[in-house]
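Before drawing any conclusions, I looked closely at one protein's amino acid sequence and its backbone structure tokens, quoted below without any editing.
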Amino acid sequence: MIRIWMVAVLLFSPSCAGLHEKAPQSQAVEEDDLNLLVQQFLASADPDQSDALLKEIKNKEGVSVEKLEGLIEKGRRYPPKPPVGQTRLSVALNPDHPPGDLSGREERNAAVYIPEKYDPASPYPLIVCLHGAGFTGDAYLDRWRPRLGETAILACPTMEDGAWWSPEGEALVLAVIDSVSSKYHVDPDRIYLTGMSNGGIGTYLIGAFHADRFAAIAPMAGGIPDEIFPFLNNLQSTGIYIIHGEKDQVMPVTLSRKISDYLKSQGVQYTYREHALEHPMAGGHFFPKEELPALIEWLQGRRRNPYPSRVVSVRDSEHLGPFYWTEINETSGEVADVLDSIFNRAEAERVRKG
């Protein structure tokens, strides 16, 4: 299916007119280089990046539909010696603009750790960690990396004030996943999302909107408004591991208890952990290192099922795209925008009405 789609795009895209003609000022085709460009194109969710990759593919001397078909059939290849250790990733976002509109694009950063002995021949799990207010991705990476060792790729993006409930926060998380996956051998069935405090809120929202992309989510010391609870049904096939401190005075533990009760009432499988520990600075609002071994062991046992036999799809006006093997292509009446409801009282009322 991907092969047919890719060939169709290359044949009929205006930017690829003359694909079979020799490009007079292009370099000779090197199979590894061309394969990397093709796989980056297939993995890209950014229309502007996709257009640029198509043009670069077209300008390779000797490229043909037949050659592209062969490369796709051989499967993805990755750079043999990419940067490892602690590094930085930069992505460009314009979530409020239509595809192709370059105005308003902003560069956002993510701190990334790649195992020192990374082998591009082996697939790696990817853990995306969302920080809370007052932190950055770099600070969060420093906290998480020693705990994980060399077992996974770790990505910690930075979002001002930890506003992961915003369209920009959502777009950043997805862009980081796509960017890391285009450069490193990430196992698409072992991508995990976790976050603390504001990051926990983002984990719930982004995880519920894009449950088909994650093997599991692990929100910590977070919560969401009651009227958004129905979106948690999207997580029927996604692992959920909730952690909260019973003495948390920043995000009351009742937030997680109410979510736990709702998940139980809906028959959604989940794991719930409360701890009674307190931090000298943060009180009960923190993630104790004593809780990490059980979480890591649980994550290691979770894999995404890309084709579940049963899908529950609860969507809003901004998330009507494909979800697993389903897609909503027609709506009637008013459809609310959940993210906008956080700032817009009228929109919040529409969400409450279902």
Summary: The CA atoms of residues 151 and 203 lie 22 Å apart. Strands lie at 85-93, 106-114, 124-130, 153-157, 186-196, 216-220, 239-245, 271-275.
